[in-house]
Amino acid sequence: MDAPVVIITVCMGSSCFSRGNNVNTETIERFLREHAVSGKVELRGCLCGGRCREGPIVEIDGEVFRGVTPGVLPDILSHKLLPRLL
Questions:
Q1: 13-37 burial code (b ≥16 CB/10 A, e <16)
Q2: Is residue 78 part of a domain?
Q3: Residue 70 in contact with residue 20, Cβ under 8 Å?
Q4: Is 1 within the bounds of a domain?
Q5: Is 81 part of any domain?
Q6: Best CA proximity match to 43, nearest among 57, 61, 63, 55
Q7: Which CATH number goes with the domain that contains 32?
Q8: What span, in angstroms and rounded, lies between the C-alpha atoms of 60 and 81?
Q9: How far is CA 45 from CA 20, 57, 69, 83, 86, in A?
Q10: pLDDT tens profile 31-49
Q11: Of 16, 35, 50, 69, which sits 20 to 30 A from 27 (CA to CA)?
């Protein structure tokens, strides 16, 4: 398998997790399956990065997205991933 093209990191600290990253992780996994790009993306979890007030935090190749909800996440993924992966 080739190295992933994109790395997505989801904060799994207690604040981000309880504020929505538990659902965001499922949303990302479903998005990757539905668009058949799972093999091109590495999905990682990380411990708290100290941005609790700004959370839930999701990073895509180091670009930080704050206040990410399951409602906006598909749009972020479509905009940031699909042009690079398809």
A1: bebbbebbbeebbebbeebbeebeb
A2: yes
A3: yes
A4: no
A5: yes
A6: 61
A7: 3.40.30.10
A8: 9
A9: 14, 11, 16, 24, 24
A10: 999 999 999 999 999 999 9
A11: 50
For residue 43, the enclosing domain spans 6-85
Give the total number of structural domains in the chain.
1
Question: What's the rounded Cα separation, in Å, for the pair 72 and 75?
Answer: 6
Q: Which two tokens stand for residue 80?
A: 């940031």
Residue 23 pLDDT more than 80? Answer: yes
Q: How confident is the model at residue 1 (pLDDT cuts 50, 70, 90)?
A: low
Q: 10 Å Cβ neighbour count for 45?
A: 14
Q: Distance (Å, rounded) from C-alpha 27 to C-alpha 42?
A: 15
Two structure tokens written together for 65: 């997205």
